[in-house]
Amino acid sequence: MLTETGFGGFSIDAVARRSGVAKMTIYRHWPSRAALLLDACTRMAPARAEAPDTGSFRGDLATVAKSLAQRMQASRWASLLPSIIEAAERDPALAALHARQNVAVTATFRAIIDRAKERRQLPPATDASKVIALVMGPLVYRRWFSREKIDDPFIAAVIENALNAAAEPRKKGRR
Amino acid sequence: MLTETGFGGFSIDAVARRSGVAKMTIYRHWPSRAALLLDACTRMAPARAEAPDTGSFRGDLATVAKSLAQRMQASRWASLLPSIIEAAERDPALAALHARQNVAVTATFRAIIDRAKERRQLPPATDASKVIALVMGPLVYRRWFSREKIDDPFIAAVIENALNAAAEPRKKGRR
After folding, report:
1. CA–CA separation, A131 vs A101, rounded Å?
2. In chain B, which residues have their Cβ closer than 8 Å to the Cβ of A137?
């Protein structure tokens, strides 16, 4: 129901109608619309993806970015994310949920960046948050802001770019 | 009212209460909540910014990016944007509005990229959409997804990165 209507069409009444469960019974489990909504969103969170191990940071980053780009364009989570972000602007509980989900979504990036540092594939001073923003940013921008296609050449350009920044300050040689 | 409550708290009833204008009168000008909402959002669109002319593409890009980062963090438009994006997922009229606003927001980028091509500061084949995504992306990601700080060093890193990509395929020399 949430993916069809967003938060706007979500009410205990509508859930009761759709599920055939009495409102009283729903209220026994969730004291309010907000509580049920929060719980539903929590369960729709994306599963934490395994960190790939291709042997190179470039390969790992490409794998993670492609899988995320796919989930952004196809998953129920992705169609609900704008509602969560909208609510997070004003509702502290949803803001906390949104923050937790963003940590989960980016955890795989952190894992491959940390490992690349251990393996000396990246300088120890690499700023993981910056690299994540450089990869996630252009993807979320095309998906939710410009609504342009996220195709393989674009993903490749984004990765190339982030690799370049990750290898800063003065190690361009790996390109 | 929209910036306070988002789309969720927006109704003809609430507008009538707040404005002291009779509902009948409001309905005479806007036939539905949707029509009034669309009109209000249209009027809150960010003004088209003048393209700066600092003499270099790097300087122009920095000026545009900084001004946009500031508007993202302070303007009424920015606090409403998640509602528009949320509605755009399901409502064609809001999707069209969102598309028009995004064209307006990115027009300044296009203007400075086009001029830099004319002045041979950028290769003629530079992909404007890609450069815009590389600049806008990390900014919108930090503002609405990770909610991290958008400080000057971050903006500088984003610009450096996009300049690098704009000068592709093989013109790293300008760094």
Report:
1. 18
2. 134, 136-142
Residue B45 reports pLDDT greater than 80? no
Contacting residues of A for B132, CB less than 8 Å apart: 146
Cα distances from B20 to residues A114, B7, B11, in angstroms, run 59, 20, 14
B chain contacts of residue A75, beta-carbon cutoff 8 Å: none
Answer yes or no: are the C-beta atoms of B102 and A145 closer than 8 Å: yes
| pTM of the full structure | 0.87
Q: Which amino acid is at B67?
A: S
pLDDT of residue A174: 44
Interface of A with B (CB under 8 A): 5-8, 79, 82-83, 85-90, 95, 98-99, 102, 106, 129-130, 132-134, 136-142, 144-148, 154, 157-158, 160-162, 164-165, 172
CA distance A158 to chain B (A): 7
Judge: B133–A148 Cβ closer than 8 Å, yes or no.
yes
pLDDT single digits (tens) A32-65: 888 898 888 888 777 777 899 999 999 999 999 9
Q: In the CATH scheme, what is the homologous superfamily, with its name and number, of domain A49-174?
A: Tetracycline Repressor, domain 2 (1.10.357.10)
Q: What is the pLDDT of residues A119-142, one digit of tens each?
A: 999 999 999 999 999 999 999 999
Give CA angle at A74 (A19, B85), nearest 5°.
Answer: 85
Evaluate whether A108 touches A51 at the Cβ level (below 8 Å): yes
Q: What is the CATH number of domain A2-41?
A: 1.10.10
Question: Distance from first CA to last CA of chain A, Å, rounded?
Answer: 47
Q: Is there a shared CATH topology between the A2-41 domain and the A49-174 domain? A: no
| In chain A, where the domains are located | 2-41, 49-174
Give the A:B interface size as CB pairs under 8 Å: 126
